[in-house]
Amino acid sequence: MSFEILKSHKTFGGKTIFCEHQSNATKTVMKFSAFLPKEKEKIANAIIWLSGLTCNEENFITKAGAQKFLKDSNTMIICPDTSPRGIGAPGEDESYDFGTGAGFYVNATTDGYKENYQMYDYIVKDVVELLKDGFGVSNIAITGHSMGGHGALVIGLRNPDIFSSVSAFSPIVNPVECPWGKKALSGYLGDKIEDWKAYDSCELIEKGARHEKTLLIEQGLADEFYKDQLLTDNLADLCDRVGQSFKVNYREGYDHSYYFISSFIEDHIKFHQSNF
Amino acid sequence: MSFEILKSHKTFGGKTIFCEHQSNATKTVMKFSAFLPKEKEKIANAIIWLSGLTCNEENFITKAGAQKFLKDSNTMIICPDTSPRGIGAPGEDESYDFGTGAGFYVNATTDGYKENYQMYDYIVKDVVELLKDGFGVSNIAITGHSMGGHGALVIGLRNPDIFSSVSAFSPIVNPVECPWGKKALSGYLGDKIEDWKAYDSCELIEKGARHEKTLLIEQGLADEFYKDQLLTDNLADLCDRVGQSFKVNYREGYDHSYYFISSFIEDHIKFHQSNF
What we know:
2 copies of one chain form a homodimer. Chain A contains 10 helices and 9 strands. Chain A is of the alpha/beta class. The first copy, chain A, has one domain (4-275): Rossmann fold (3-Layer(aba) Sandwich), CATH 3.40.50.
């Protein structure tokens, strides 16, 4: 799977790149950013970062300060865009939490969306192939924020053979039960709630999905979305009950922003590196 | 000098704040951001960061990753906006390199600008007073990027009693001689080149201005503005000739972006901390 580098910025001795490629899954050109710690060395490991609502491929790589913690390692990070763009689907640009910038990492089945909004396949197939064939990576971990934390948990739990470890910042853990999730899943998958459950980390674990490594979750206690949208405790209680190893770090005073992510990204990078 | 906190985000155990206050110099409400490493302790030291063209108070605090390097220290950083906004001056919003977002840290004398575009006084008087009275800081260093690097050099060289040390990333060192500088200085100060020289670090040093500490400059060699706008070598040659201590770190492969700044901001923080 080939890709084109649109911009490259030397950063901490490595390079931050902005790229695009033709996606088989979405049938569109998709953009991503990445940080490669050393230009000359072969890179063994990759972390996929899935961003949240309204984000594109730029937010994390610009704001999280992750390069500093990867610069001397053999680990790259890749940040895909969060949806196809400009396909003209009905209602695509009418709200911040559906359509453009809000792909929710599902394979859509509804009219207007099913042709291109195949974000689950985009990550699991295209981005994984890109990492293996395009960047020569052997081991892949997955993480993300909010909607992207949901994506990381769902994709990691459904593909434990592909993703060596899974973590999330402020994830939507139980979208079937929260307003953001209900809106997106009904819009992309239709009205049958059974169909939504393949994209809900709590429902997946309830039905037996497991990851052999600990699920690491970072959750700010001053996060305005914690109680109504993220429902972190639902996942924690469930993992406890069924024996899925997990760790939720509840962080006093931290909110939903990239200032929170930047404060703890080093811990998540080290966590994934310890599991490669 | 009082100020209002508009937003506060816990970051690395401290807080990133976005604020506004009434400026005596610009006669407008001005915005700034800051990072305070520890909420409870009195903060002894501050670094002023002056941003470049098109920037506002957000760019540095969001993109540079400086919080990580200040979190365990007794040093805050403050990032003022780069111009008054929305005053309705003629041509204020017609180009990226003059007017809004392009105050050049001068006290304007031209019609339409002289009432509010008093950015030199804003930094030297209002921001300094804000740090001393509002935040209780004792020692102040100054740095910045591009247009803000120019501002830091000029303001630091003209006020060595106020600013304990001076550094800059990719500064416009000789604005009297470059297109950006000629456009801005003529627009803010009129056609007499003699009047521009009070805002040109090379002209100031030529006329005897000195700082007892080393001027530290970071310059990327892949910076597209290096040869035509920044003129770094003019300052280096001059400092060498007149005996002003300086150090220019020319960095192979680095460009003019925040990816460059983030890669070396730790060195500049340590430099200023060693001079408090």
